[in-house]
């Protein structure tokens, strides 16, 4: 192996394969959340799922911020990410029972992973600014860890309160520590947050396909409506991908690259740490609604699952709209109209079978994206 030429570890700041490997571990966690929402369709459990998702986002986000300032192909970074990936398995396995009887099984891995991120931020940086920024995480990460472990020792409302406080303190910490001239590599940061959205979109495919695979394994054949529902659900995932990656993702990355100093840190924090939370959460919630509709395509969709599907669309498109407004002062009119039309369809056409509800929803999204494209692109084409 001596003949293999390895690139300089000080110069590679693109997302390393080990970072994608870490992201893929969250597929397990997201799938657990989807299953939890499918089987618990009341507001109390939706609130619990939101709390657990918020903690997962804190874990992922903290490691991502820490890794943004160091070369991704260094062995220290790779070892930290591999350790975090292995630790994420019990965390993901306990997602659905974290607020019941698996408090420590969930909380201890969460604390370990955030501690590994802190190690990466303080030891992985190769300059004084990087070390100072890493130390800025210590207070917020320490309080977060104490509240997570303390909450695991409590029951019911006590645990919810403690873990909600942990998230709140972390958010306050990010407001204080990133409101400075933070080391920010826009390309890497945009790539990392794009990857986690793709991971979440992959969960849509898993959620809608897994129940039908089980039916095939039992020897059942798929009806035509089931096949149409599968294709329509796949199209839905593709439209969600297009809604973010065709225009929004490159525009946000370019603007963050153009911004300097503390304004760059704040812009990246708001767009990626805060607004991306809504985007990824939207995919997870939408996947729960889609799973039921594709599993029973010939039946009228229950209200709870139509509400989940609407909530997913509203969170996803709303998160994108917030980014557009924050970054460019632009109002995403077509996206707002898409949310309204989705609400009319999902709550007004309750008699539609699940399969045709998904098809109609796809049509709404296609019309939304087409109208936006025509409004934005046609004037420039005419000028050319």
Q: What characteristics describe this protein?
A:
single chain, 384 residues, mainly alpha, I/LWEQ domain, 2 domains, 13 helices, 80% helix
Structure commentary:
With 384 residues, the chain is mostly helical. It folds into two domains: 14-183, no CATH class; 185-384, Up-down Bundle (I/LWEQ domain), CATH 1.20.1410. The protein is 80% helix and 0% strand. Helix 1 (17-39) packs across helix 7 (186-217), helix 7 runs parallel beside helix 10 and helix 10 (261-295) packs antiparallel against helix 13. The longest helix has 35 residues, at 261-295. The chain is globular, with a radius of gyration of 21 Å.
- The CATH top-level class label of the largest domain: Mainly Alpha
Head-to-tail CA distance between termini: 54 Å
Count of all domains: 2
| Strand-residue proportion | under 5%
The assigned CATH architecture of the largest domain is: Up-down Bundle
Shape: globular
Helix content: over 70%
By secondary-structure content and strand pairing, the structural class works out as mainly alpha
Largest sheet: none
**Annotated CATH topology of the largest domain:** I/LWEQ domain
Q: Count the beta strands.
A: 0
Averaging pLDDT over every residue, what do you get? 86
What's the total helix number?
Answer: 13
State the low-pLDDT regions, or none. none
Whole-angstrom Rg? 21 Å
- The helix/strand order is HHHHHHHHHHHHH
């Amino acid at each position: 192996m001596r003949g293999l030429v390895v690139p300089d570890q000080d110069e590679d700041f693109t997302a390393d394969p080990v970072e994608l490997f870490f992201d893929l571990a969250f597929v397990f966690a997201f799938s657990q959340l989807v299953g939890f929402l499918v089987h618990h369709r009341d507001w109390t459990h939706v609130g619990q799922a939101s709390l657990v998702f918020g903690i997962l986002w804190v874990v992922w986000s903290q490691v991502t911020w820490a890794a943004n300032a160091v070369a991704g192909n260094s062995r220290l970074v790779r070892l930290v990410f591999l350790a975090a990936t292995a630790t994420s398995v019990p965390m993901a396995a306990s997602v659905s029972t974290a607020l019941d009887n698996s408090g420590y099984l969930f909380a201890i891995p969460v604390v370990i992973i955030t501690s590994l991120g802190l190690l990466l931020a303080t030891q992985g940086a190769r300059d004084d600014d990087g070390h100072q920024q890493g130390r800025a995480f210590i207070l917020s990460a320490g309080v977060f860890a104490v509240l997570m472990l303390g909450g695991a020792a409590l029951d019911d409302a006590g645990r919810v309160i403690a873990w909600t406080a942990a998230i709140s303190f972390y958010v306050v910490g990010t407001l204080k520590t990133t409101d400075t001239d933070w080391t920010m590599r826009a390309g890497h940061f945009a790539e990392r947050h794009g990857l986690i959205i793709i991971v979440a979109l992959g969960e849509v495919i898993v959620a809608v396909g897994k129940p039908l695979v089980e039916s095939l394994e039992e020897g059942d054949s798929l009806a035509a409506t089931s096949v149409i529902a599968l294709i329509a659900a796949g199209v839905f995932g593709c439209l969600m991908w297009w809604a973010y990656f065709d225009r929004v993702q490159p525009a946000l990355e370019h603007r963050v690259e153009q911004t300097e100093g503390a304004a760059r840190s704040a812009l990246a924090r708001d767009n990626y740490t805060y607004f991306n939370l809504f985007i990824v959460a939207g995919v997870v919630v939408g996947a729960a609604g889609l799973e039921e509709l594709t599993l029973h395509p010939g039946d009228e969709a229950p209200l709870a699952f139509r509400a989940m599907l609407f909530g997913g669309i509203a969170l996803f498109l709303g998160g994108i709209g917030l980014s557009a407004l924050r970054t460019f002062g632009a109002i995403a009119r077509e996206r707002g109209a898409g949310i309204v039309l989705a609400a009319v369809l999902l709550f007004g056409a309750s008699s539609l079978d699940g399969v045709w509800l998904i098809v109609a929803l796809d049509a709404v999204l296609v019309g939304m994206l087409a109208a936006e494209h025509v409004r934005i692109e046609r004037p420039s084409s005419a000028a050319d």
